[in-house]
Amino acid sequence: MKILVTGGAGFIGSAFVRMLVTQTGHRVVNLDKLTYAGNLENLTSVESSDRYRFVEGDICDARLVEALVAEEQPDAFVHFAAESHVDRSILSPEPVVKTNVFGTFTLLEAARKFKTPRFVHVSTDEVYGSLEAPREATEDYPLNASSPYSASKAGSDLLARSYFVTYKMPVLITRASNNYGPYQFPEKLIPLMIANALDGKRLPVYGDGLQVRDWLYVDDHCRGILAVLDQGRAGEIYNIGGNRSLPNLEVVKKVLALTGRPESLIESVTDRPGHDRRYALSSEKLTRETGWRPEMDFETGLARTIAWYQANSQWVERVCSGAYRDYYQRNYGHRTALR
Length: 339
Ligand code: NAD
Ligand code: DAU
What we know:
Layout: E1 2-6, H1 11-23, E2 27-32, E3 52-56, H2 62-72, E4 76-79, H3 86-91, H4 93-113, E5 119-124, H5 148-167, E6 171-176, E7 178-180, H6 189-199, E8 203-206, E9 212-217, H7 218-231, E10 237-240, E11 245-247, H8 248-259, E12 266-269, H9 284-290, H10 298-311, H11 313-319, H12 322-332
Parallel strand pairs: 1-2, 1-4, 2-3, 4-5, 5-6, 6-10, 7-9, 8-12
Antiparallel strand pairs: 9-11
Helix pairs in contact: 1-7, 2-4, 4-5, 6-8, 6-10, 8-10
The protein binds nicotinamide-adenine-dinucleotide and 2'deoxy-thymidine-5'-diphospho-alpha-D-glucose (DAU).
């Protein structure tokens, strides 16, 4: 197949592109705007492959998207491109709504016009909102988004599904839990805590740190998306979870233990507005229909991730340059220590 991947220079998209090029015979066209989160360094291992092409561009640019789809005639879209960070969506919602909603619309329109045989829309468990324990969201659970990010993803999910219902387009939606692994931009919990710990800086934990997330190793996520692409039923939604729910504070303490840094670096700070307390989802449908299940156990995956950040300190230094420091100041500068 020829697969048009959007957002393939980001964290999960680049892992998916590397997987496609090195472990399958598929051809890949990667459309990415190279925002602060897009980094071609993530793709140096595949850039010289004759089954890989990179195109710099915005998914909101209908002319560019149409021309690319007309030229390449892909067999499938796998759509990762998004503004993916909740805290940034709270600080500046506009680019989030533009890319996540309007960008998805632009791609759906191009796929409709050129009758692309498959469209996988990559979404998130955040669309289900916060769940009381021990409840787990199945794919028919109501949407209950809290942040501009999760609301924009819920909007894009509904739009994607409407193209299946209305135009009979072969759209499939995946909803994954919190990913971690190499190449993740250090604005998200795990890479931020690793980078700060390695640097001897304070580790800012929002509120009481008892919020629960389900951790999924990025390669397990990519295998799940590939299973949906190959075997999923058109019009269906598939949850992809890591089956490892942990309170944030426990995750942060594990990072400190594995990096050999003291727990005194932890600083409880002002909470995230609208902070969802607990995400939890069931991936039973994907396992039943495709045999997929998460393989990486959290402690091994975390140790591997920390080792990658230790070995790639120059990558970290480059992405944590001026713009990152500005963001850090905007997001953390006003937060006060809670104790
Ligand atoms: P990321 O922020 O690391 O990467 C996003 C990529 O999209 C970047 O390469 C960026 O340059 C590109 N991009 C952004 N706006 C664009 C635009 N307008 N046009 C073209 N490219 C654009 O994100 P990620 O963490 O890899 O997430 C990828 C997808 O997976 C997102 O759709 C996200 O909602 C979803 N998801 C993420 C997680 C997670 O834990 N990170 C979990 C579940 C689902
Ligand atoms: O659940 C899937 C989602 O996971 C994805 O859709 C999003 O793209 C991804 O960013 C992630 O969203 P979260 O908000 O859960 O991830 P984040 O890493 O930002 O935060 C994880 C938890 O850690 C959350 O409860 C907030 C908390 N946190 C985060 C940061 C960055 C802190 O306590 N301190 C921090 O500095």
